[in-house]
């Protein structure tokens, strides 16, 4: 039976050895090949520490009870593993020092120049990593065997340490009974060196390659590189391409190309013989170079030293003040039902104050009562208005006046989300979105304007195609996406620092953009676009529902927006370059509307301004640093 004093003494020995190991680790961190003699001394001391650790472990075995032995033994094993790591590091430094010494002896005449080159410290070569993916096994195995397995100067324990450090995921979960290097490497080989599964993984990768975006050099280059990578990997495991495999592979890959590329490939064939895989790859390489040259010539613009900003313009901007409380004029946001100034007013004054700007049910300024989802009603009369707007019957005013006022607001224009706007002279909070709406009240005219909208399919982070309603703006040099849609798609946002100038010089900051793949319904048109992310594009469009059934459109006219004429949400605005890229021959005109054919179907717009309840006007200028 061990006494308490004996265990305390052994623990002190272990603590002293741990302190020595910690100091040695600090030395190794800062040591280099110039400290050769000192490293040899430290290595000798390390061997002595390892011997003493073995003695401490034996003493624990002799006097400690079984219930306490495991924890104490593990503490010693951790120190032994740290010693092995330090031993590897010291031997690596000494090996590097020996190589430099040999090189110095061979080039004695150039000792001065060599002494200067010794100070150049090359970066360490990282070990290959393996996470358990079958297609990565062959490459990992080859590199690890060349770097570690074939190194005779490393012990099995050191090789085991290196092997474990390279594993992650499913590969790291593999364990063996004796926990040795050879057994672990064999277990990994038995598990992942499966030719059939490796081939299947490469075949699946080839078949699931994404279609390259039309006329995109970058997308086509990625497609070619991926094809080549998977074919080379199959060759490393002994699968060579024969005539049948090449023909089948070309047939699969060419169906992923756009119509123009397929036509160009057919023109490149000079005979009726079956094309070879090398011919197909050569064609794709040449097409990549052609697209890169064309895009480089189009996009390259000289930078002027005197120009600090690049300006782009976008029409259809909406601006209205909303951050400032309508009752107390306080710029700090707070609920209207908690505003002291609002509560001091009588119900009728409250109604007159908010009826044109707020929902009369929930008092929100982001929507009107006909769009309110709140199921709350007046606690006094159980009608659809806020309790703070309830007027008692003995006041001489009919109670239903509020509901009549609320109903009259159902056709009023939508309100926009808040975002910070900076004026050139003063700073104030304004609500700005892409569409400046000037209300022109008219009792007689109830018509509304049609603006060109289309249904665009945009890929989300899971590579799924999501339909979105987009507005085509012939006066915009940039395209835009709402925050809400960008977040729901899960697209990666890239940080930028740009600004948009709107009506009356108001400015709103843009802090992010996304790169998205968009297409039409049948994917005959695909394009990659850069979209600036903003809080909101515009209100529901059109301002009022417009009936187009009475137009009796010809059967051949397929609308680009099937919901044309119905109020619906706009989450994307596309620039002039996009609009003119999709226009095709074919136009149909009526007294009030124009229908223009495009790659998405027929786009509609009003034939004349008319005398509408709501008119759209505005101008936005984006100021963005050239070097951003």
TrEMBL record:
**Name of the molecule in the record:** Uncharacterized protein
- Out of the domains of life, which is the source? Eukaryota
Write down the species: Araneus ventricosus (Orbweaver spider)
Keyword Cytoplasm present in the record's keywords: the answer is: no
Recite the UniProt keywords alphabetically.
Coiled coil
Gene3D superfamilies referenced in this protein's UniProt entry, alphabetically: Acid Proteases (2.40.70.10)
Coiled-coil region(s): 69-96
